[in-house]
Amino acid sequence: MIDSHCHLADEKFAADLSEVVSRALEAGVGRAMVILSAGDAAESAAAARVRALWPGTRFSVGVHPHSAGAFIGRAADAARVVGEAVDAESASAVGEIGLDYHYDFAPREVQQEVFAAQIALARDRRLPIVIHTREASDDTFALLHQGGGPLRGIFHCFTGDVAMARRALDLDFHISLGGIVTFPRSTEMREVAVFVPDDRLLIETDSPYLAPVPYRGRRNEPSFVVKVLEQVAALRGVSPQLLAARLVANFDVLLGPTVSHDKA
To answer: In whole angstroms, how far apart are CA 206 and each of 7, 69, 132, 151, 231?
Structure first.
């Protein structure tokens, strides 16, 4: 099984990280991608603990749109910081990056500039990107269309409809579904869960956020991805075991060969 997006380096896991990892492994979650905030020394230190406890983890680093305001007029510096973090963390992807017009913690034009700079970095490094987009789909797609050269990645914690999913798929992106697909009123998400082709689908927890039913309201953790898997498998009419194998294959193909965590 996979958890394609979790924040295990978050301080919310500091006290019981070992137990959280043990529960994930016991649940059969063999692969996970841990999201890090580029330039955050505390998260980098926590990532070292995650590596030691869970060799099946990969890492992605980026400047989240909420943090883009730190780079007003300095989008190139954001890309530089992310590039350095990619090297330091042996990262397999750039992200999560994107646009968030719901909270607007950073000016929208700054979010766009920082997002564009990180897209360019990912193209240069030939790395996939992990996209966070909220109430900003048109601008997100506009920026993805800019530039040139191949680009791939994941629309993480996808909350759009089938039409938006089709736009992402047309760009050769993967779509990752989280705990929201288990919520009773998530009709559009369930339609997306059926619509996405087998080879473009991923699942995640976004731990410690958005725990699936029946854990809703609790701190989320990678072991809970089992509930996402079961829901998506039921919607698609396949066994959880068959779907799990397909998703692991998708994860490994997208991210490429495993990068050693050993530091020189």
So the answer is: 7, 23, 11, 23, 16
